[in-house]
Amino acid sequence: MLRYVTTNPGKVREAERYLPDGSVERLDFDYAEVQADELGPIAARGAREAYRHADAPVLVDDAGLFVEGLDGFPGPYSSYVEDTLGIERVHEIAADLDDRRAAFRCVLGYCDGEGFAASPDPVDRGDRDAAAAAGPDEERGAGGSDGTDPLPVKLFEGYVPGRIVAPRGDGGFGYDPIFEHDGETFAEMDTDRKNAVSHRGRALEKFAEWYADR
């Protein structure tokens, strides 16, 4: 049984669209989120911590909104920025930019305590199906900072391009009202439409293809 580490049941329902029936369940576990400029190390560290807690295969995700004209801000800090500045303020900042292109990115981190073949990069920018993460520096080498052996983590990235617009729509959550993809904001899309194009869905599709042979 695969444990999807999240407090959001909706994420598990989305995962169930890509994985065999009864193969995934939600694990409510509050792992420590490290500070990093990329999503990969955050998901990798969370997957290791969750695996040690659950002693079972786990899947952790980290996601963010990356605005091109703001050098990727808010990126990995999206949740904090949403809580402190709010999405309307992010739109106001982006509205003054010449380049309002943006992307939602999601990285899934999988850990089951076993090793696997990997490409050298923490996240495979060539958009191959998966890549492995070495993790934060303190977990490299002979062992982790807590004296344990470093655990292999496989990462899968999903990406959806769009642009920042004035808030529209009543659905979704987070930055959905200000993120437009293909003429609609995520908040204007119904659940099926959003899941079909979402960054998390694209990462889950890659993961499911790989996991089927695991």
Folded structure, characterized:
- This protein is α+β, with helices and mostly antiparallel strands and 214 residues long.
- The chain has a single domain (2-211), classed as Maf protein (Alpha-Beta Complex).
- It has helices spanning 9-16, 39-54, 78-84, 87-95, 191-197, 199-211; strands at residues 2-5, 24-27, 58-67, 101-111, 131-133, 153-164, 179-181, 184-185.
- The longest helix has 16 residues, at 39-54.
- The radius of gyration is 17 Å and the shape is globular.
Structure summary:
By secondary structure, this protein is α+β, with helices and mostly antiparallel strands. It has helices spanning 9-16, 39-54, 78-84, 87-95, 191-197, 199-211, and strands at residues 2-5, 24-27, 58-67, 101-111, 131-133, 153-164, 179-181, 184-185.
Topology:
Elements: E1 2-5, H1 9-16, E2 24-27, H2 39-54, E3 58-67, H3 78-84, H4 87-95, E4 101-111, E5 131-133, E6 153-164, E7 179-181, E8 184-185, H5 191-197, H6 199-211
Parallel strand pairs: 1-2, 1-3
Antiparallel strand pairs: 3-4, 4-6, 5-6, 6-7, 7-8
